[in-house]
Amino acid sequence: MNIRMVLLASAAAFAASTPVLAADAIVAAEPEPVEYVRVCDAYGTGYFYIPGTETCLKIEGYIRFQVDIGEEPLNGSVSNDSDWDARTRGQVQFTAKSDTEYGPLTGVIVMQFNADNASDQSAILDSAYLDIAGFRAGLFYSWWDDGLSGETDDIGSIVTLHNSIRYQYESGDFYAGISVDELEDGFYKTGEEPNNVGVAFGVGGTAGAFSYQVTGGWDFDNEDGAIRAMGTVEIGPGTLGLAAVYSSGPNSYYSAAEWAVAAEYAIKATDKLKITPGVQYYGDYYVTGDDFSDGDAWKVGLTVDYQIVDNFYAKASVQYLDPEDADDSTTGYFRLQRSF
């Protein structure tokens, strides 16, 4: 065998023992670690950590369908004995909380979407405020928005949502606070402009089966104020609620009458059914103008709540109002609401 044959045989053997690489191998990149949402149980049910932060967030809200009925115009365009109006609402609330050296820092945003029909819709900021160490500032509902559990009582302000700043002390079953409120869309006497301020206070708490609240407010533009007391106590198969309110003159905190008393009894008929009859009497009922009238009024009503399944309930309410110096009226509504 000559040298040429030896070289060719050696080259063939080397090629057979060497793997063929047509191109560089493709190596898949290692996947990035995924940070799953963590439950935050420090502030109650429903909170979770915003990924990458120590802030806890809760998302909740409701969807509501309601049909209003009544003898009074409901939308300003029709008035007869068979007025009715269907409307739908969706509301979403975002609550963010995080720990600080002063205690939890809370931020709340509530968006509300209303539709009377396909062409009459609105989106509003229902609330937006920050809260820390008992101080709250922003757009939120005042203590005058609170009331008895039924729909008959009329013991609150015309408008209870204000840009306000307040401090509220809380200790166990007791709270007390004071607020400064911008009253731009409340009650105004002739010649007054919507540039008003008020100061309100709230004191309340619970003691066993009894709960109570005392609320007051002074309207500086109208130079009048109001004070209200209400309480509830569990008696028998239900809860008895009583309330009384006095106003020195029509103002943004209370303008329905010079004084009023209200009562209701919320009967827990079953685990899912609650029936609440109620009654209210107004002294010097407000009709129109800058002051209360000399006539009184009374109101009676019935509200029924039924829980269909968890987080889904139906409510029906009917109310009859009979003022001395104005026409009587019957109003009511039927509501379906799903909360989440």
From TrEMBL:
GO molecular function terms listed in the Swiss-Prot or TrEMBL record: porin activity
Keywords, alphabetical: Cell outer membrane, Ion transport, Membrane, Porin, Signal, Transmembrane, Transmembrane beta strand, Transport
Gene Ontology CC: cell outer membrane; pore complex
A UniProt-annotated Pfam family: Porin_2
Top-level taxon in the UniProt lineage: Bacteria
One of the GO BP terms on file: monoatomic ion transport
Signal peptide residue numbers: 1-22
Major localization listed first in the record, in broad terms: membrane
Compartment(s): Cell outer membrane
Keyword Membrane tagged: yes
InterPro entries, A to Z: Porin_alphabac, Porin_dom_sf
Recorded topology in the membrane: Multi-pass membrane protein
Function of the molecule: Forms passive diffusion pores that allow small molecular weight hydrophilic materials across the outer membrane.
Family note: Belongs to the alphaproteobacteria porin family.
Domain description: Consists of 16-stranded beta-barrel sheets, with large surface-exposed loops, that form a transmembrane pore at the center of each barrel. The pore is partially ocluded by a peptide loop that folds into the pore lumen.
Protein name: Porin
Organism of this sequence: Rhizobium aethiopicum
Taxonomic lineage of the native organism: Bacteria, Pseudomonadati, Pseudomonadota, Alphaproteobacteria, Hyphomicrobiales
